[in-house]
Write a structure and sequence with these properties.
nine-stranded mixed beta sheet; 15 strands; about 20% strand; globular
Length: about 270
């Protein structure tokens, strides 16, 4: 087994489902060490539950009962332990979508302070020292969340779906992510602030996908003169006049993708 590179084993194990991977995990110590790199690569965290899947309002947010909250916190502490936390490369944070019938069974209760579990997560988030990608859906980012992201030295990709940004947040540390995706949000100010949170000199991939009726370039603050290093750009273009002129702010772009369209290869600048 020692003659086979770890990368080959990882590629082989990557096609296995999680149950089979757990079985491999128990076979021998060498396989245990390799399989755990995949078992703990991605961490999914549900800070609360919510009704619906389109627009989530504060009244739709619920917490599970006390016993379940304790179980969630125990799971979180396991994933952020010294043995597991360094293995986590990707993290997804989103509400657990529930049905109204589950509320009638008393499994979840409406709570004003629905960030109680999220606070514990943010306190432990800096332990994911090798985290490279954060994906989030229907989460409101407040100051403590941004501060926690700023403590992650290897965070390079941020993907946000239907998320919002609290108006009072301050940009204390510029993130060094090379890819930013912001999709399905009407939060114009929030998108502009995200563009300022991630350093212009670092970002090489940018995707802004607003609701259908809103051109993506409307979300980009005109005070930012140029995006010097963006090489891959994904946006929604509505007009061929103002939008194309605005694309001059992306001099390094090599690939342009329209939402619901095909990629366009850009010739290098002379």
């Amino acid at each position: 087994m020692d003659r086979v590179p770890v990368e080959v084993w990882l590629e082989t194990f990557s096609i296995l489902n999680k149950r089979t991977l757990f079985s491999v995990h128990r076979v021998s110590r060498p396989l245990h060490r390799i399989a755990r790199l995949l078992l703990f690569k991605h961490f999914t965290f549900y800070p609360y539950a919510a009704l619906g899947s389109h627009v989530i309002l504060p009244g739709d947010i619920h917490l599970p009962g006390e016993t379940e909250v304790k179980r969630i916190v125990r799971r979180l502490r396991f994933w952020t332990s010294d043995e597991v936390a360094p293995l986590v490369k990707e993290c997804t944070v989103a509400p657990r979508l529930i049905l109204y019938e589950e509320l009638k069974l008393g499994r979840y209760v409406h709570c004003q302070n629905y960030d109680v579990i999220l606070h514990t997560f943010l306190e432990l988030l800096p332990r994911f020292t090798n985290l490279g990608k954060l994906s989030s859906t229907s989460i409101k980012f407040r100051q403590h969340f941004l501060d926690a992201l700023g403590s992650l030295p290897n965070l390079r990709k941020i993907e946000l779906q239907k998320c919002s940004l609290d108006e009072s947040v301050m940009v204390r540390t510029q993130l060094k992510a090379v890819r930013l995706l912001v999709a399905n949000t009407n939060d114009l100010v929030g998108v502009q602030k995200w563009l300022s949170i991630i350093g212009l000199q670092v970002r090489t991939q940018l995707s802004v996908q607003p609701p259908y009726a809103v051109p993506a370039l409307d979300f980009m603050d005109g005070d930012i003169p140029v995006f010097p290093n963006v090489m891959t750009l994904e946006i929604r273009i509505h007009t061929l006049t103002q939008d194309v002129i605005a694309l001059q702010r992306f001099p390094a772009v090599r690939t342009l993708r329209r939402r619901m369209g095909f990629p366009y290869n850009m010739r290098p600048n002379p």
